[in-house]
Amino acid sequence: MSEPAATVSLTVHLGVLSLLSFGGIPTVLPDLRDFVVATNGWVSDRDFANFFAVVQSVPGPNMILMMSFIGWKVGGLAGAIACALATFGPSCTVVFVIHGLWDRFRAAPWQRIVRRGLAPVTIGLVIAGGIAMAGASTTGWPTLVVTAAAMALVLGTRLSPLWALIAGGAFGALDLL
Amino acid sequence: MGRSALEENKVGHSSDGVTDDALIMRPAGLLSVFGAFLNIGLCGFGGGLVWAHRVVVGRRRWLSEQEFAELLSLAQFMPGPNIASLTVCIGARLRGLPGALVALAGFIVIPWMIGFGLGVLLLRHADNVVLANTLTGVSAAAAGLMIGTGLRLLLPHRTRPIALMFAALALALAVFAKWPLLAVLLALTPLSIATAAYQGGRAP
């Protein structure tokens, strides 16, 4: 189903969603799923879930890759590239402008207060993201041990996080998880 | 990460990154910004946040912990992929528009090609058990790295019980109540900022 009209329609839709995705791309995933699975039937539910799983386990910008796989299914390589650009192009332009405004008032007393207030909530959400990922990837206590060991590595050592990823992958490959 | 314990302590105890900038900021050349974000993109399994923190704060010392957390807050609120937004903010903070463009190019172009190629391969061999098990192990480790990075970001706030409480509340709403990120931000940040304002008014 690689018709140009479908690719254009998907790209435009992604560009708009990207601009509306305050809080990050995951906030618009349900809407996107409706559009590509239910409304247009471009990808199956299973494809959608597979894409999501795969982009968590390859390096690179994962939400941009997720959109690229949907684009690839609809319009081949050109579709993949168009969808990647639509995912970050418009939003990054907006982000640059907002950052400029924010930066201009860095020394303002109100901004120091806002910064102090924002940080804890932001950090809580990062930890929550890690816990959600651990929940999604766990297959029992051995995976939880891997997760805990990786956490300890970041907190207690200066070793590269790559070692945790390699060790985790190796345990998995040896069927120990 | 060559930071001494003493220096880390100094950074850790400040309430705000502004005063510490001179201590730890290192000048950033455009080429090294590109290289740093290429590194972050290539290693960024399960999102680049862990590596962005390690490279930008730890190894290159371009930003303090507080500045990193500040830009992360900004990126979380804004539309688009959070890590791409963070990349633009860090690039812009370091070198303005050229910095933002170079950081984004480093973070996306080559890592996208590799990630896309690997992904296509994985999707073709989705039924391979060894491959699937390997990926399970990698994502379990990636999850731990992310939790550890979050806890490290929390360290500078350890002397403020109210900050720890808001972090715990955000975590609970996201994990247990399963609220979307934006809902948590909109519900908690007004309270959290109001508390900071109240405390700021009383603090010496």
What does this structure look like?
The complex is a heterodimer of chains A (177) and B (204). Chain A has 177 residues and is mainly alpha-helical. Chain A contains 7 helices and no strands. Chain A has helices spanning 4-20, 29-39, 45-57, 62-104, 109-137, 141-156, 161-173. The longest helix of chain A has 43 residues, at 62-104. Chain A is flat. Chain B contains 9 helices and no strands. Helices cover 77% and strands 0% of the residues of chain B. With 204 residues, chain B is an all-alpha fold. Chain B has helices at residues 5-13, 21-24, 30-43, 49-59, 65-77, 82-124, 129-154, 161-175, 181-202. At the A-B interface, helix 1, helix 3, helix 4, helix 5 and helix 6 of A face helix 3, helix 4, helix 5, helix 6 and helix 7 of B.
Descriptive tags:
heterodimer; A: 177 residues; mainly alpha; 7 helices; flat; B: 204 residues; 2 domains; 9 helices; 0% strand
Q: Treating each run of at least 4 consecutive H or I residues as one helix, how many helices of chain B?
A: 9
What gyration radius of chain A follows from the Cα positions, in whole Å? 20 Å
Number of domains of chain B: 2
Distance between the termini of chain A: 39 Å
Helix content of chain A: over 70%
SSE-based structural type of chain A: mainly alpha
Number of strands of chain A: 0
Total beta strands of chain B: 0
Biggest sheet descriptor of chain A:
none
Q: How do the SSEs of chain A run, as a string of H and E?
A: HHHHHHH
Which protein chains are joined by the largest interface, and how many residues does each one contribute?
A: A-B, 99 and 104 residues
Total DSSP helices of chain A: 7
Mean pLDDT value of chain B: 84
Strand content of chain B: under 5%
Low-confidence stretches of chain A: none
Quaternary state, please? heterodimer
Mean pLDDT across residues of chain A? 90
The rounded Rg of chain B comes to 19 Å
Distance between the termini of chain B: 33 Å
What shape does the CA trace of chain B take? globular
